[in-house]
Amino acid sequence: MDENHYVFKLFEKQYYFELDLKEKLSGKLQMYIMVIVLVVGFLGTQWFDGKSYGGLQKFFFVLSSFISVTALVYATYCCCRSLFPYEWHVLPSAAAIEAHRVELYAFYDSHDKKEEVVNQALVDLMYKNFVLCHFCPANLEEIAC
What are the alphabetically sorted keywords of the record (predicted)? Predict the structure, then answer.
């Protein structure tokens, strides 16, 4: 590996950061489906054994069914967000990547402490793409997420 391997370390850290975001979003779907199966399975085996119930048991069943459907809709939304590019960047063309690589080589050659510069660039990227985009939706035009 050449002397400018810090550039590739930065790309690798950015890639794993975006991949981790996608895995966390798609993991929400699995958790909600598990909760829905547990709740409906418990209610189906404990409360409804073929008899017709009314009153409080029916209310709890309808309430838990509503919560389950709401959780399933939210989990589907999170799954779709993780599968399609929503807030992260799509890879540019090969020519743009090569031009950016040449620019990064020139930038990192002028610094003595390359590892600290890479770590600071990763922190700035995470702050811009995660904290500002996820928690400050009013500022999306200014940030250009």
Answer: Membrane, Transmembrane, Transmembrane helix
